[in-house]
Amino acid sequence: MVVTKSLASRVKPARMQPKAAAEASEDLPPNLGELADLLGYSLKRAQLRVFEDFLRVMTPLQLTPAQFSVLLLIEKNPGRNQTEVASTLGIQRPNFVTMLDSLESRGLCVRLRSASDRRSHVLMLTDKGRATLMRAKKLVAAKHEARLSELLGESNRVVLVQMLAKIAREL
Amino acid sequence: MVVTKSLASRVKPARMQPKAAAEASEDLPPNLGELADLLGYSLKRAQLRVFEDFLRVMTPLQLTPAQFSVLLLIEKNPGRNQTEVASTLGIQRPNFVTMLDSLESRGLCVRLRSASDRRSHVLMLTDKGRATLMRAKKLVAAKHEARLSELLGESNRVVLVQMLAKIAREL
DNA sequence: CTCTATTTGATATAGTGAATAACAATTATC
DNA sequence: GATAATTGTTATTCACTATATCAAATAGAG
Lengths: 171, 171
Known about the structure:
Strand content of chain A: 5-15%
Distance between the termini of chain A: 25 Å
CATH class of the domain at 65-141 in chain A: Mainly Alpha
Order of helices and strands of chain A: HHHHHEEHH
Largest sheet of chain A: 2 strands, antiparallel
Oligomer: homodimer
Helix content of chain A: 55-70%
Largest interface: A-B, 71 and 71 residues
Number of strands of chain A: 2
CATH superfamily of the domain at 65-141 in chain A: Winged helix-like DNA-binding domain superfamily/Winged helix DNA-binding domain
Shape of chain A: elongated
C-alpha cells in the first residue's frame, strides 16, 4: 500500500502547468495537459509498453501475447473447440483460424475432429506445446511480471489487475 | 481507499478453480486460469472496453480517442509543429499526416507555414476546433470519466491512472 | 423421417493502425 | 559554399480486426 499512497499523494502536488503559457514553452517538450488525467490515454500507453516488454522477454520462444493466451487457454480447457476458445479471448472465428494454423504448423497444438460433433475441432496441446508453454510461463513470471511487480510493488500490481478486470467485466 | 481494499482483499479468497477439472467442465464457459492474473491481458481487455465506451460517448462529435488527444495537445501547445505533436503522442510522422488531413478537412485545425522555419507547419485550432473540443471535453467528463469514476470510485480511478502512467514512463 | 434452420470451421475481402523507405524543400553545419 | 540533417509528404508493407459467404454437419419442426 506504500506505493499506492505515494502515487495517490502525488495527485495534488502535481506541478501546476503555467496557466497562460500560450507560446511561452519553446524547445521544451509539449505539455500533455488534461491528457495525463484521461484513463483511456494512460491505459493505451501502458498497454503498449507492457506488450513491448512481453515480446522482448518472449523473444527466445517467439510467442506473441495473443498466442501465449491461446496456449494457456487450451492447456486449461483441453477438448474445447475453436469457437469456444476464440470467443473466450474475444477473437473472431475467421481470425482464429489463421492463429491456429500458425500454432499447429509449429507443432504446438493440434485440431482433432470431435467424435460427438464432426463439425467441430477439439483443441489440444502437443507435448512440444506443453513444454513450450511451461518455458513461456517461467519466462513471463521471472522476467515480465516480476519486473512489473518490482516497479509497482506486488500488492499494487494485484490491485491494478483487479481494477482492470473490473473495467473489462462491468463497464 | 475502500474499493481498493475490497479489491485487494479479494485476492486471497479468490475462488480456487477445481484442480483436476481436465474434462469436467462441459457446456460451462472456458476457464481463464492464469490468464486472469496476467497484467497484459487485463490491460488489453480493459483498454478495448474503455475505448469502446469513449467512442460511444463521442458519437455525436465523431472523434476517435486519437483525434481527441491531438486536438487536446494542439490546444494546450499552440504553435507546435507536426513532428513535435506527433512524437509526443507516439504517432509516426507519416501516419500523422493523414490524421491532420482529416482534422483539417473538417475545419477543426489548420497548418500554417512557420515564419521562422518554412519547412515546418505550425498547428492551431480553429474556432470550430476549439468549440468542438470544448463540447468533447464536457462529454468525456460527464459521460465517460464519470462512469469510470462511478465504477471504481474516484480515488481509485486516480490511483489507477497514476499506476498506468508509471508503467508507461518507467517500464 | 424429411425439410429447414443453425452451427462450425474456413475462405475471401476490406478497413484500420502502425512501421519503414524514399523524396523535395528547407535549414543547419562545417 | 558544399554537405548533412530536418520537415512534411507519399508510397508501401505488415499486423490486426471485422464482415460476408460457403460447405459440411448437426439440430429442430412438422
